[in-house]
Amino acid sequence: MDLHHGEIVEKVVRRKGCSISEIARFTNVNRRSVYYWFNQKYLKPKIIYKIGLCLKHDFSVEFPHLFTEGEFDNIKNQGYTHAPDYHADEMEDSYWRDKYIELLEKYNKSLLENSKKKFNQR
Q1: Same domain, yes or no: 18 and 71
Q2: Domain harbouring 20, CATH code
Q3: What are the residues whose beta carbons fall under 8 Å from the beta carbon of 99, sequence distance 6 or more?
Q4: The model scores a pTM over 0.90
Q5: First and final CA of the chain: distance in angstroms?
Q6: Among 24, 77, 110, 116, which residue's Cβ finds the most Cβ atoms within 10 Å?
Q7: Domain check: are 29 and 43 in the same one?
Q8: Tally of domains within the chain
């Protein structure tokens, strides 16, 4: 059976309840990159490993061909916590920035839907 790396990683992320923004901050990429990873059939082990560290999840279970059992031993059974490299002020700023972006995306979607409705009424 051929595994879809991105789908497997996304399922683990969703199951753990981790935010996409948190993964993006921890891996030093933007949110769009994280969503892009979820759509990729194959991911570099380095990316999966970084996400595993963020989630404190042992991906050697899902990907035994990429990781040995011991690679995630230092994080097993610790549960999800925020990335340790961020101060509270930075986390709060990131939270509000992400909220703002989310609202802008909803607003743009709403504008697009309204303009389509108006166009169809003509």
Answers
A1: yes
A2: 1.10.260.40
A3: none
A4: no
A5: 51
A6: 24
A7: yes
A8: 2
Q: Given phi > 0 = left and psi -120 to 50 = alpha, else beta, which region is 63?
A: beta
Q: Are residues 56 and 23 in the same domain?
A: yes
Q: Which of 41, 60, 49, 56 is nearest to 2 (CA)?
A: 41
Q: Would the pLDDT of 89 be above 80?
A: no
Q: Identity (one letter) of the amino acid at 64?
A: P
- DSSP reduced 3-state for 75: helix
Q: What 3-state class would DSSP assign to 60?
A: coil
In the chain, the amino acid numbered 81 is T
Identify the CA nearest to 85 among candidates 44, 28, 21: 28
* pLDDT 10s digits, 8-65: 999 999 999 999 999 999 898 999 999 999 999 999 999 999 999 888 898 888 998 8
